[in-house]
């Protein structure tokens, strides 16, 4: 890229996006910032981003995305939990809201590039497609969260933190005198800061499917508290005394929570829906079935089925399975179900 190319950075006011902004400035780019107000819960982030942008001397645009966020993220999140799935709201938000808003504003401003503070990289592969690549810091890698971004985004996306470790980023923030330098990383879903999913969902007027616990031997153990309280693989908080450890094996379409004995929560076949990827042929891949999981070898049939030579633990419907080759994201889809 040439000097003084313009880039619009998505700024949250946190340490990662703030340092990314400074790195873009140091590379010679002309930087503007944008902070997105997704919901009233994000007002603190808006104010923090405006303060950081002022400190680093760049204009910061406030983008309003409440309607899109409600329709594309919050509502599907609530509906998913009420149906017994385990959705990942960041994966829903990134293509439909966050990056769509950044790209639209970049076009309005005449910025060639957009950028964020994600720990990942992006580049053009030999087949001509742009692909997300894993970060140098694998413990911080966020490529999984970006797997649904399309070519129109990836061809213009800069990720300045992809080659850095978190301690380097924090030290850079300290050197700049940023207030966020030692702020803790956010661990909760951004629009549910207290982490109480059922209360949030109920407050939105949704109600979960109800049903019964079904023991591993098929016995009916009585009613449960609603499927939003459970996720596939869960062991704790079931409120049952079965004499040995059990886990949630499956949540049925009717609302029953089927249990299995601990040690039986491994599956060899995973079915996907909503596949995406510019080119996703049948073959061998490394696959992550949740954001914090280690990649596992598998065979993809080219349609919707993953087969693992070594069974994987508790693939949860609603989560994503992301396919990698040599550290590049080739695509993925939402987990629809699994079989032993």
Structural overview:
- The chain contains 7 helices and 17 strands.
- It has 3 domains: 6-176, Rossmann fold (3-Layer(aba) Sandwich); 209-261, Adenine nucleotide alpha hydrolases-like domains (SH3 type barrels), CATH 2.30.30.280; 266-339, Beta Barrel (Elongation Factor Tu (Ef-tu), domain 3).
- The strands form 4 sheets. A 6-stranded antiparallel beta barrel has the order 12-15-14-13-16-17.
- 42% of the residues are buried.
- The N and C termini lie far apart (49 Å).
- With 340 residues, it is α/β, with parallel strands linked by helices.
Total beta strand runs: 17
* Assigned CATH superfamily of the largest domain: HUPs
Unreliable segments of 5+ consecutive residues: none
| Whole-angstrom Rg | 21 Å
Strand order of the largest sheet: 12-15-14-13-16-17
Largest sheet, strands/sense/barrel: 6 strands, antiparallel, barrel
CATH topology grouping of the largest domain:
Rossmann fold
CATH class of the largest domain: Alpha Beta
Secondary structure blueprint with pairings:
Blueprint: E1 6-10, H1 15-26, E2 30-37, H2 43-56, E3 60-64, H3 66-82, H4 89-109, E4 113-115, E5 120-124, E6 130-134, H5 151-154, E7 157-158, H6 166-176, H7 197-203, E8 212-214, E9 220-223, E10 246-251, E11 257-261, E12 266-276, E13 283-288, E14 296-300, E15 305-313, E16 320-325, E17 328-339
Parallel strand pairs: 1-2, 1-4, 2-3, 4-7, 8-11
Antiparallel strand pairs: 5-6, 8-9, 10-11, 12-15, 12-17, 13-14, 13-16, 14-15, 16-17
Features:
340 residues; alpha/beta; Rossmann fold; SH3 type barrels; Elongation Factor Tu (Ef-tu), domain 3; 3 domains; 5-stranded parallel sheet; 7 helices; globular
